[in-house]
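Comment thread on ticket #2218

A.B. wrote:
> Attaching the input chain for the structure job we discussed in standup.
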Amino acid sequence: MRQDLPQVFQGIETFGDERALKEYASIVNVPEEIVPTSRGYKYAEIIDAIDRGEIKALWITATNPLVSFVNQEKLRKTLAKLDLLVVQDAFFGDTAQIADVVFAAATWGEKEGVYTNSERRCNKANKAVEPLGDTKSDFDIVLEFSKYFEGVNEMLFPSWSKPQDAFEEWKRVSKGQLCDYSGIDYALLESENGVQWPCNEENPKGTKRLYSPDMAFRTKDKKANLICAEWFPMAESQSADFPVILNTGRTVEQWHTRTKTRSIDILNDLAPEAWVDVSPNDAKKLKVKSGDRMALSSARGRIEDVVVRVTGSVREGNVFVPFHFNEQLINTLTNESFCPKSGEPNFKQTAIQLHSIEVPEGLRLEEEEIMGEIEHIKSAFEGIKFKEKEEEKADLFKK
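C.D. wrote:
> Ran it. Output below, let me know if you need it in another format.
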């Protein structure tokens, strides 16, 4: 499928480059005026735009934000404002269950196509079985949907009938760019068991390593340009009410929001529910041991009945909880703090409290004698607000 990203053109060209816009429009044969001239919204910015009424309809593909996104209470209230929610997924997950329209999508092994992993290796997935029932591949869903709008299919997907047609366009768009796929074809992918881009006439079997002595950086001085990113403290500091830092993450037995792995018995037997890793010192203060249960709370909500695991893998004043489980939905607690560059939520630093049966009021914040404290920024880096701040800074520079 088309690999448009919110911040770049296909082939990694930045928005605002008129030459790139004209070149892109020419390659894919669309009018220049329909090509975006500025980046799209990041994930959190989409949620903010729904909240203020700018976005009325949302099409979610292959993700389950009703488990994976931060501050679940706000997210659910925001999604309820939509006039239309469409979910396209291979599994009937939490988000699909609240959708107005569900497109049943084929999963791996039921469709053909290419994909690229984080080491730039492009591989081909071969279709092994037919999709179940009326299920269709993502390619077929988008292609069929486009035919409901006059002229759209003919303009965007002319004569497309198979996934290879999308790949051929991507090869044309990426040619000459760093991520050059122009030399890759299905036969090469099969014979080489995958090919790392760039792959072209100069590198006919791909490129194992970028930026070698034979490949300079694509910068004016041909050298790496390091970014000195602005540091900022946690958006939510520890306090007397919430003295513990929550870190969320994954466990090897489950995948993401368990839309698939929760149906696999051996994985559920190994990790059937969420747990909280607690340091021995905090466990002693809370009068708990491994196997006990307790509640966790933050400024946004509370979750009950979480299994305790006492371990030295976390330090005092910190806990870890896997995020996979919708029964003990840990993202009920997480805060809205996002990376200003990537837009990725900060799942690693939320101020919370722990409530055991013996110590229901929770832990007390240990006062430390310090020479000074860095101010904690509450909202400057949350979603759309960061964009507004950047625009204000740009206006100041212009003046």
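A.B. wrote:
> Thanks. Noting for the ticket: The chain has two domains: 8-196, 244-386.
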